[in-house]
Amino acid sequence: MAEGVEVALNIIVKWNGCDYKINLMPSSNILDLKNSIYKETNVLPERQKLMGLKFKGKIPGDEVCLKDLQLKDNLKIMMMGTQEEEIAKVTEGVVEYPEVVNDLDIEEEVVEIQNKAEYLSKIEKRINTYQINILNNPRPNKKLLVLDIDYTLFDHRSVGETGSDLMRPYLHEFLTSSYADYDIVIWSATSMKWIEAKMNELGVSKNPNYKLCFMLDSLAMITVHVSSYGVIDVKPLGVIWGKFPQWNKHNTIMFDDLRRNFIMNPQNGLKIRPFKNAHTNRSTDKELKKLSKYLKYIAPLDDFTALNHSEWESYYKSKKRGHHPTS
């Protein structure tokens, strides 16, 4: 290769569940990148928000050259942005989204799976090898709240210009209220890079009203075999409990829109209603507002194993009326 000859740079843009490969010369600028993305996604450059690019500690302007960002080849970045036709549909109130079936009815196998030596061994391996980056030290006498991201706190399939467009209503109020009684952990079945990007975009990472204890990604999960569905990935709370003995089945609760994710700890899991179609459901979704009250009601309890989290709404309504349910 002759000296001074530019070599094209490949950038992989993740948007709306798909990867788009963009090929540009290093002398191209951010606007050139946005125009190339527009050709692939039909999202106008002015509606694009590119996550994962930094120039001198800030989001680079359109005039900044790619070579000045010192990008690695095949770098993956995330884009947020909405196509004009989608904006028009939302405005007209006729948005249509495909229904996604993403849960499993596997209750009959729970006991066997929970106690199977093969899976307990996998959990032990994660305890010994998975590295957790502590963001804020656990606080004494706080219970543990473990939260999923996609469809739990954030509609990751709809398109939006900013994270706030897709953020579940009452998210910050929910986390602020929960933080008084619980240390908060994020666990998503994606890579840590995307978890960090989403938490930053949603304004969760550095919110002054609450703090995250740490975050877990897909590498902390294990696979189990369910006879009806084959091999699935799950989130065993034992990985956390093995590293932090102050937490256990008696003082931990986990929110996820997929019941299968807490198959190893079904009594500690609460299946939250999925937050989808953010543009149309944003004004009516009050799930987190109600769940913040539920967490507040159960926080004084010494043992969560006496609760049936699948009946959390009945518990919430009874407490709201001044009754005192025992389970």
What would a concise description of this structure say?
Residues 5-86 form the Ubiquitin-like domain. This protein has two domains: 9-90, Ubiquitin-like (UB roll) (Roll), CATH 3.10.20.90; 108-320, Rossmann fold (3-Layer(aba) Sandwich), CATH 3.40.50.1000.
Question: Describe it for me?
Answer:
Residues 5-86 form the Ubiquitin-like domain. It comes from Helobdella robusta (Californian leech). Its EC number is 3.1.3.16. InterPro entries: FCP1_dom, HAD-like_sf, HAD-SF_hydro_IIID, HAD_sf, Ubiquitin-like_dom, Ubiquitin-like_domsf, UBLCP1. It catalyses: O-phospho-L-threonyl-[protein] + H2O = L-threonyl-[protein] + phosphate; O-phospho-L-seryl-[protein] + H2O = L-seryl-[protein] + phosphate. By secondary structure, the chain is α/β, with parallel strands linked by helices. It folds into 2 domains: 9-90, Roll (Ubiquitin-like (UB roll)), CATH 3.10.20; 108-320, Rossmann fold. Helix content is 28%, strand content 17%. It is built from 11 helices and 11 strands. The chain has a 5-stranded parallel β-sheet, covered by helices on one side. A 4-stranded mixed β-sheet has the order 2-1-4-3, with helices on both faces. A hairpin with a 2-residue loop joins β1 (9-15) and β2. The longest helix has 13 residues, at 117-129. The protein is globular. Mean pLDDT is 87; it is low at 90-102.
Task: Tell me the layout of helices and strands.
Elements: E1 9-15, E2 18-24, H1 30-41, E3 49-51, E4 75-80, H2 84-92, H3 110-114, H4 117-129, E5 143-147, H5 163-166, H6 171-179, E6 182-187, H7 192-201, E7 212-216, E8 222-226, E9 230-234, H8 238-243, E10 252-256, E11 269-271, H9 278-281, H10 287-298, H11 312-320
Parallel strand pairs: 1-4, 5-6, 5-10, 6-7, 10-11
Antiparallel strand pairs: 1-2, 3-4, 8-9
